[in-house]
Amino acid sequence: MKILNGIKVASIIEKKLKEKIKKNNLKPKLLIIQVGENKASKKYINFKMKKAFQINIEAIKLKYSKNIDEEKLINKIKKNAKNVDGLIVQLPLPKKYNTKKILNAIPLEKDVDGLNPKNNLITPATARGVMDLLFYYKINLKNKKVSVVGKSYLVGKPIAELCLKNGANVKVHDKLTGLIGSEKADILIVAAGQKNLIKNQNIKKNVVIIDVGINVLTNKKIVGDVDRKSVGKKPSAISPVPGGVGPMTVISLFSNLIDILNKNNK
Ligand code: NAD
């Protein structure tokens, strides 16, 4: 069984981005907005800041208290967006905010996460990460049966749309439909956020599995949505958690940022 190594593929993309920045003399500027004190968010932001530094991208973090009101936050996003090439609002936001409305405030051309619901210029970072991982390992989607588990507008839906664009026959599963049919898929992409969801009986022999899920166990260990013990060696390939889609998502937001800058330079 092949391991689809997101750390390795992301580092190859990282090297190419660094070269592009140098060659085109780009001075990318990224703003990361954090609202409130979510511990996981803090960790992800630190990781993104560190990665940005390594790629020669200037990253600035702005942090607001969870007490800032929605309109004020929207104004801050709009105002600060003017001074940078790309802007990320780290999710999840505290519950009182309307996430769609906040993401809507990010100018489309600076939305490097690709999460503004109206954005058809920029591919959402996780979906791009999944595709780049598949492309690197030469896993062709054309005419393949693909099951996507999860259809959130931030993760599952854009992944399913990209699979369709690449010629796959796509079946989307959610909590209501359940997993029926996933056992017929040639490629199974799981983004449900439910540990041990995918078991042996939910997959076909030699399926390729992309595990997008991130679940934090009580002992702080991070696992995906696939029950690795149960599926055993039945898949032909699988992306691990951690070390699969996670690093691909992070590098994709930088790929999106450099694409924006290259477009503006032309
Ligand atoms: P979400 O809660 O918004 O959506 C989950 C989706 O999965 C929903 O459509 C829901 O109906 C479906 N679902 C849940 N339980 C199911 C079940 N038992 N059977 C079938 N479908 C089921 O979550 P999200 O924001 O889309 O994120 C999904 C997962 O991906 C989370 O674990 C999140 O942490 C992870 N994630 C990972 C990355 C990464 O870089 N690896 C990036 C973003 C999100």
What does this structure look like?
This protein is of the alpha/beta class and 266 residues long. The chain has two domains: 25-108, Rossmann fold (3-Layer(aba) Sandwich), CATH 3.40.50.10860; 125-246, Rossmann fold, CATH 3.40.50. It is built from eight helices and eleven strands. The strands form three sheets. The chain has a six-stranded parallel beta sheet with strand order 1-11-8-7-5-6, with helices on one face. Strands 3-2-4 form a three-stranded parallel beta sheet, with helices on both faces. A two-stranded antiparallel ribbon has the order 9-10. Strand 9 and strand 10 form a beta hairpin. Helix 1 (6-23) runs parallel beside helix 8 (245-265) and helix 5 packs across helix 8. The N and C termini lie far apart (43 Å). The mean pLDDT is 96. Nicotinamide-adenine-dinucleotide is lined by residues 126, 149-152, 154-156, 173-175, 178-179, 191-194, 197, 212-215, 245-246, 249. Nicotinamide-adenine-dinucleotide binds next to helix 8.
Radius of gyration: 18 Å
- What percent strand? 15-25%
Secondary structural class? alpha/beta
What would the average pLDDT be, to the nearest integer? 96
C-alpha end-to-end distance: 43 Å
Shape: globular
List the secondary-structure elements in sequence, H or E: EHEHEHEHHEHEEEEEHEH
CATH topology of the largest domain: Rossmann fold
- CATH homologous superfamily (4th level) name of the largest domain: NAD(P)-binding Rossmann-like Domain
